[in-house]
Amino acid sequence: MSFQIHPNTIQEVKDKADIVDVISEHVVLKKKGKEFVGICPFHDDSKPSMTVSPSKQFYYCFSCGAGGNSIKFLMEFTRNNFTDVVLSLAKKNDINVETLQGPKQEVYKKQLSKRESLYKILTIAKDWFKSQLYNSLGEEALNYLVQKRKLDSKTITDFELGYAPNSWNNILNYLTKIEKFSEKAVFESGLITLKEDKKFDRFRNRLMVPIFDPQGRVVAFGGRSLDNQEPKYLNSPESDVFEKGKLLFAYNKASSNIRKKDKAIVVEGYFDVISLHSKGINNCVASLGTALNKYQISQLCRCTDSKNVIINFDSDNAGIAATKRVIQEVESLSLHDQINLKILQIQDYKDPDEYLAKNTFNDYSNLIEKASFWIDWQLEQIFKDKDLTKAEDFQIVVSLLVKFLSKLPNSSTRTHYLQTVSERLSMGQARLAIKFEEDLRKQVKGFRWHGRAQKFQFANETSQREKNELEIILYYLHCSNLRPLIREELLKREINDFSSKESSIIWNSIYEIEKTILGPDYLSNFKTNPPKDLIENLKNIDLLLQLPDYLNINHPEFKNLLGPYIQPGELFLTTLNNPQGNILGSLSLLERYKSLKRCRHLIQSWSSQRLQTLENCISILINSSNQEGSDSSQEIDDLFQELNSDAIKFQELYYLERQHITFLDKQRCGNSYEKKFNLS
């Protein structure tokens, strides 16, 4: 959508889109004084380095320098252009959008009208399903709710439960013939489906549970089968108003209670939530058939100052596996105290619904208070079903413990758990407990050190690197006068490959086009002093015209991915006031990744060489003990000096590489750079 939004609308979006609300949808924020802190999503952040100021409506990362208002954050985070971000924020804040071009404004109004139509259809459908629950057709469904689920009329009414009759076209006929909606609109709502050109109701003979967005609007349904048809639970498909990965069931009801109690409870299913709410436990929600993700966790954390989240999934194997996936999803947040995660698994009961059928509100509340801290729960899973008297099980447990405990960044926390697990491993023998703790501490320390050396790429390094590569390609395509500079810098910095497949294909395609026009050896000229005619010819190649044609012939699978490269968004355009500095920054970051990788290799080589030195010396001692008259001490001295000199070389190379990284950081932050080319 290419049209200009009226400045009044932009200003209203800036005024109404609270930056804490915007960022906390994507990043868990923790209050610190008058401001909020969180882990920065724009670099590999090892600790919360991003500050969000509600008073200034501004965010800033003290580590990577990222900062700006809510619009800037979403542009950077989502990679969407300025217009899309403003429109998205306008929708969320119910802001009427004005444009400077009337026809385009009409297009946008039609889009809004479509969403409003979907909300209306879904609301009418909800009321119709409710009415069916209380007639003769819904008798079985109502009995199920009252007798089996033990729900009272108030709970049924509060959650607006309904029934979809066992018919192929009841809701279709009602919405099209009575309410006069088009079949296309009803189809887009997800209430009907197509099969072999035939339209029929998606939900048949199912208990209907409406799903609301945070604003309390019906956006979808969940249907529970009453005749054992599969699937047991059926959700509406995603639509213009329903994205299940961004919603939590009953969040609209629970959010205020989560704030009051400063605690959120997450369960697996609709009826777990409904049962808990009916018993007065009204600060609970459920995910919508997907694994709980960071976005949903961030939603919950917006409602609790202490970031208290309790996971109470089913106690079967599937529930345990789902719990582990949640922990994996938010582990980095938990390790840095950005979320206080606890796990509750109810023994001898399948799920909270079954437990509450036989127990009281107070019983469940006591269980919540005793829920295990996520680290304790993880450790319990390591020991589960393991016989420590068997060598094989013991070895497996120790290996898993070392791997897990090495993740803990806080040394005091590590010490606490090292003592705890050592006592458990010793099975009550105090001397063994001390010995186990010493051994585990050494192994954990070694794992933390060598693990860093062997992991040559950090978690968020790839995404940041891909972003820098994209920027280089954009400048190369759209700023033709900068191409000689980019080529020379890439050669000088020995950056000859891109990390992502997409960027690599596009960059190699550019090279092939240039090689055809300029000759196969044109790059070698940039290593010395490139002739002026080569520089001018390079600048004059119309890559924006030739690149799509080349990809269409040689890499047709990538031709549809060219959009962001050919038509960059507003965010890129804003950087054109200082292109050379930005290019240098991106190149410095790419070179930094290479240097960091070399550092990790050098650390590993340095450590390995020292170990090899000791092993060889010990071998000489062993062999010499069986030989009379041999001078083992002199052999050891000579070997030690020879091998240790290699270790020292690795050490020196490592520190030189670190110095180079410091230089690159200064360069990236805007230090002066001597121009070699006339770029005016």
Outline the structure in words.
The chain has 680 residues and is α+β, with helices and mostly antiparallel strands. The chain has five domains: 7-92, Zinc finger, CHC2-typedomain (DNA Primase, Chain A, Alpha-Beta Complex), CATH 3.90.580.10; 105-242, DNA primase, catalytic core, N-terminal domain (DNA primase DNAg catalytic core, N-terminal domain), CATH 3.90.980; 251-370, Dna Topoisomerase Vi A Subunit, Chain: A, domain 2, CATH 3.40.1360.10; 385-454; 589-624 and 631-668. It contains 28 helices and 16 strands. Strands 1-2-3-4-5 form a five-stranded antiparallel sheet. Strand 14 (308-311), helix 13 and strand 15 (340-343) form a beta-alpha-beta unit. Helix 22 packs across helix 24. The longest helix is centred in the C-terminal third of the chain and has 46 residues, at 579-624. The two termini are 33 Å apart. The relative contact order is 0.05. Mean pLDDT is 80; it is low at 450-462 and 671-680.
Strand order of the largest sheet: 1-2-3-4-5
How large a portion of the residues is in β-strands, by DSSP E?
5-15%
Q: Give the CATH class of the largest domain.
A: Alpha Beta
The overall number of domains is: 5
**CATH level-3 fold name of the largest domain:** DNA primase DNAg catalytic core, N-terminal domain
CATH architecture of the largest domain: Alpha-Beta Complex
Indicate the radius of gyration in whole angstroms. 31 Å
**Level of helix content?**
55-70%
Tally of helical segments = 28
Global structural class:
alpha+beta
End-to-end gap? 33 Å
User: What shape does the CA trace take?
Assistant: globular
Q: Quick check: average pLDDT?
A: 80
Q: Low-confidence stretches at least 5 residues in length (pLDDT < 50)? A: 450-462, 671-680
CATH superfamily of the largest domain: DNA primase, catalytic core, N-terminal domain
Sketch the major β-sheet.
5 strands, antiparallel
